[in-house]
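Researcher: Next sequence.
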Amino acid sequence: MSALRTALDLAASGLPVLPLSRGKRPFGNCTACRDNACGGRPNMKTAGSCCCPLVCHAWAAATTNPAILTSRAWQAAWADAATVAYHPGGAEVTLVDLDDADAVTWARSTLPPTRTVATTRGEHWIYRGTMPSANDVRPGVDIKSTMSYARWIGPGTGTMADLPPTVRALTVKAPSTVRPSGQAVTVPAPAGGGQCRHRTPAYLERGIAMAEQRITEARSAVHATVYRTFLAVLSAHGRCGCLTESHVTRLFTAAQAKGESLRHCTDAWTNARTRLGI
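Model: Next structure:
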């Protein structure tokens, strides 16, 4: 079966797909999108936002639209394609890539059973649910979900299980490694002076606890929930100087427990500060 025929069958089943060139590599950026000139599609959390019709942004180019897959712009890519890849996050799944026998042995003794696909050197374990992708979370183990692509090998065997906390925990760093920002989080008091109402311990504690709970209870769109929560905390407490490194560490720790990387936490915090002009 040709790569395009396989891609169309997978797209019909709801799997966002794209062609891979030899060496399991996506096709290179086009002139219009090179160096992010198109406005940021490689940074999007879901595919399909760039107006460029070419196959130029790896996971972000993955689609279920047969009109795009068979379009003239994609013809050359399919003609040169060695295989088909898919975007796990776009399919609402997470793939645990076990690259060798030792990693497979670890997974069988640690992770709950789920759908399994045999690879040349190891196995892919596929769970229902998404999380940030990360490489080398332990020896021979990569996580492929959002903002990532994986080679299509086959449907695998077994019943797909829900993404367990054990897998999410693989990307969580110890709280001692948290660095909320490159500068102190304390900011000047509001113009006019006076006692800050947030300095009441109960008021501030309640706000931080509610923010932690909002992040912890997120069932989907974790990236967006973390950003909106950071934005709300900074909007309420960010201009009066009452936030401490300890408060921000608590927020980062809650986000990392949901699968966010330290980089994503830092970016969300910085973006929220920028939006509020802090």
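Model: Strands lie at 17-21, 25-26, 83-86, 93-98, 115-118, 123-128, 134-138, 141-144, 150-151, 161-162. Residues 40-48, 174-195 have pLDDT under 50 and may be disordered.
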